[in-house]
Amino acid sequence: MIIQPVSNTSSEGEKIIENLLNRFQDADTSCQHAVEEILQQVKENGDEAVAEFSRKFDSPNLTVDQLQVSTDELKMAYEQVDEDFLASLALAVERIQSFHEREMEDSWLQTREDGTIVGRLVRPVDCAGLYVPGGKGGSTPLVSSVLMNGIPAGIAGVPRRVMVTPPDENGGVSPHLLVAAQEIGITEVFKAGSAWGIAALAYGTEQIPKVDVIVGPGNQFVTEAKRLVSGMVRIDMIAGPSEVLVVTDDSASVESVAADMLAQAEHDTQALAVVVTTSQRVADGLPAELQKQLTALGRKEIAEQSLRDRGVILVVEELEEAIELANDIAIEHLELIIEDPWAQVPFIRHAGAIFLGGHTPEAAGDYIAGPNHVLPTMGTARFASALGVETFLKKSSIISYSKAALKADSEHIQRLAKLEGLTAHANSVAVRVK
């Protein structure tokens, strides 16, 4: 049996819950020294360092003048994808665009009777960098990453969006990625992967511009590089393994629940798939159904290892217990496959994304539904949110005093400044109102 269902009140269940609540892990820094060396090389040697690392790890014959995807390569990409892909891509773009347009913030001003004006000026960053993993040498292109990161940046009004992605062994980039980029208005694409791709975006090279924000998923080296350059640039987040928690009652389909657990487990062996159910029928039926569906998966070994190492099936008495447990765990993806999921929405406090009902698999959110799939993991949904338009925006305060307004506030400003020992602050007001 891959997973043994357990009661939440058993000693084993209590231990499992404790592990779930304390699953946050610091980023794996075992590659820190290697990444620091890569960052320094790119900082000092620019394009030549990027090309050299690319030759060593990705494309043996790549030259500096091939780093940028050419206009011809961009045009040819359309000849290498089929109409079905273009139709699916168009639908995904429309849905993601429509959803994220609602996130755009407006600048605002507040005027007081004494003539003081305060407010907030909302502006996009000048340049955003999108990192898109190669996907097994281009054989599994992560088109959704292009859309989920690039579309919100476009809506924010970022005037320059730059994409970096590893080349395949022949120096090419998946046509699916290139078409997806162009369909959302991105034409600056560079062949640079791993930590050197992140370094190029952070420091800038002769060809690759220095950016203000870096977003996009990646392996251990990408994650460590993003961690090291954060602060100099904004990053989206340091993400942990992908995770799902499925809350079910007896109305749930065992087949659907098992399928959703496996959809998460196939990401990698550290992925986390959890079921919390009030139904003994569901709990008892899941192990055999998981085993049955595993046999048809292309990533069977990964999914099976993930479930054996980290899969959880917890049985609770009441739905209220399940919901409170879900809040405590603060999962990345929360599915409510219960009779009346909308009735529980007011009680959900912490989740990256919430999927309601038996016909709403997490996979829909990954590709087509519209909301962003870049979500907080490892319990950080307690305080963090999905990537969105605001990731690419910054806010500046606006303050304007009239002479009368400053005179009215001067005594208070000077009193507080002097209390803090900042007499020059107080004097900067005093000289204006004397």
Any chance you could write out the topology, listing elements then pairs?
Layout: E1 6-7, H1 11-21, H2 32-57, H3 71-77, H4 83-101, E2 108-111, E3 117-124, E4 127-131, H5 135-138, H6 143-156, E5 160-165, H7 175-183, E6 188-191, H8 194-203, E7 213-215, H9 220-229, E8 234-235, E9 243-248, H10 254-265, E10 272-277, H11 280-294, H12 300-310, E11 312-315, H13 319-329, E12 333-337, E13 353-356, H14 362-367, E14 393-400, H15 403-419, H16 423-433
Helix pairs in contact: 2-8, 2-9, 3-7, 4-6, 6-7, 8-9, 10-11, 10-12, 15-16
Short structural description:
The protein has 434 residues and is α/β, with parallel strands linked by helices. Helices cover 44% and strands 15% of the residues. The chain contains 16 helices and 14 strands.
